[in-house]
Amino acid sequence: MSASLKDSIPNLLLLNIPREVVMAVEDALTVGAQRAYAAAHGMDEGHLPHVVGHLRHFHMNESFHRALMVGNASPSAIRGNGIVTGRAGIFTLSRFNIPTGFWINGRRSNTRRQMSAANKAIEPLVQPELFNDYQTPSEVVAFFVACFSGSLQNQPEAPVSIQIAVPNRDMRGWLFREDVGVFLKRYDQPAATQDDHAIPKLKRNIGKQGKDGTTT
Q1: In the predicted model, what is the mean pLDDT of residues 65-74?
Q2: First vs last Cα of the chain: how many Å apart?
């Protein structure tokens, strides 16, 4: 089924991911990070950053899994270092951690890169010149990204921010990303007035769209 011109990545997120799931994940990732930092207490400062990083992965994986389960989002089983995923509508949901500003770190996982290939289907939503090729997808991917300060001297016990992010097909860029606190406010807005704050900038030579839907 072809999309209407009102379709956008934020609207797809809103239609497929219940508010309760987003709220549960936000809380769970914060709690997981706090538990990880507390568990690292007493470790030698020489390897403390590495200990905290590893413990964040395990504790936040477990809390993410519980949040998905409570939200009926079909979490995958916890297995070793494996990535935990869930499902909400057409979206596969997963998570990762980064130091603030180092979004390229998300590509370090081959599994995450493979998952992101599905998002080729929604790239036309931020590239109007390709919109005629768009079909409503059956599967796309979004990540909850916990951004940390990168220093154990600055808020080491919790993320500086948690964002919901939709990568492009090769995970080299982001079709949409927004702080979860800001994103949650979208659920209270009328669907017709929701703004798309997508990251990509449109090409200068793309024409402007008229009121009748034509391009000039």
Answers
A1: 97
A2: 26
